[in-house]
Amino acid sequence: MKAVLQHILRRKRDYANLPFFEHLRDDALPAAQRLSFFPCMAPFILGFGDLNRHVLRVEPTDDPHQAMINAHTYEDDHHWPWYLEDFAKLGHDQEGCRPTDTMRRLWSDASAQSRLLSHRLAHLIWGATPVVRLAIVEAIEETGNVLFGLTSRLAAAVQHETGVELRYCGDFHFRLESGHAMNNDHAQLARIDLDVPTRADAIERVDQVFTWFADWTHELLRYARESQARSPALAGNASRTSAPRADRQPRILPTS
User: Fold this and answer.
1) 201-248: pLDDT as tens digits
2) Which of 60, 143, 158, 172 would be 167's cystine partner, CB 3.0–4.6 Å?
3) 144-201 pLDDT tens trace
4) DSSP character for 243?
5) Distance separating alpha carbons of residues 48 and 71, to the nearest angstrom
6) Exposed, middle or buried: residue 42 (CB in 10 Å: 0-12, 13-18, 19+)?
């Protein structure tokens, strides 16, 4: 497994340099505007709990690798309520918005990659042996480490400016995610022996994970830029990366 973990870290380095993450690092934009992609994440984030409970978790099991995965799923299956909490705090709950309007938006072409990501990962996981599933989980967690490492900085800036704590975007969640992949015991994972075909299968599936997550980030960036482009008042205010400014500052709600 050591070679697979090294491959994951190489893919993570490339992943961290994708345009979406450069957008999140763009200090020419206010932190709240850089979080304007947030609604587009909803289908995948809300489905991630199901992915852990109903796809990754297999109980009962006598397989030690599946048992490691099961333990991990209990750490990751309950984060989505924090996403909904931040969704409201960032001002995306609009009074009078009809459920049909929300569903139409979330099931539009603008969030297709976010919807497909869970389905694609489920297909990948169901076709894998437990030991290869460990590699898939590790790859997924490394993508989250990149994302939440950046959003936690934005959440800190929002809290400094407004007093509002964003738990899903912020340190509260990132600290939990930093204990990723079997309680961050890479040494234990690295000691797992893989034969050549299994190692090749794991690397192929890891590559697929990063490809699909990259597609997802392109959609998030497109959503953010389209949201920003809708404001004539801010159309002339470009960042240093020439991305349009946000259409409006999200209405940050105070904590109770």
Assistant:
1) 999 999 999 999 999 999 999 999 998 886 433 333 333 333 333 333
2) 172
3) 999 999 999 999 999 999 999 999 999 999 998 875 544 457 889 999 999 999 999 9
4) P
5) 16
6) buried
The residue type found at 174 is F
Integer Cα distance of 166 and 155 in angstroms: 6
Give the closest residue to 120 by CA, choosing from 17, 58, 47, 218.
Answer: 47
The pTM assigned to this predicted structure is: 0.88
pLDDT at 256: 35
For residue 247, give every residue at least 6 positions away whose Cβ sits within 8 Å of its Cβ, in sequence order, or none: 36, 227, 228, 229, 230, 231, 234
**How many Cα atoms occupy the beta-carbon half-sphere of 234 within 13 Å?**
20
Note the pLDDT tens digit of each residue in 4-62.
999 999 999 999 999 999 999 999 999 999 999 999 999 999 999 999 999 999 999 99
- Which among 226, 215, 233, 250 has a CA at the least distance from the CA of 33? 250
Answer yes or no: are the C-beta atoms of 164 and 89 closer than 8 Å. Answer: yes
Cα 187 to the chain's mean position, in Å? 25
**Phi, psi (5° rounding) for residue 152?**
-65, -35
Torsion of CA 181, 178, 186, 192, to 10 degrees: 0
In this structure, which amino acid lies at residue 212? W
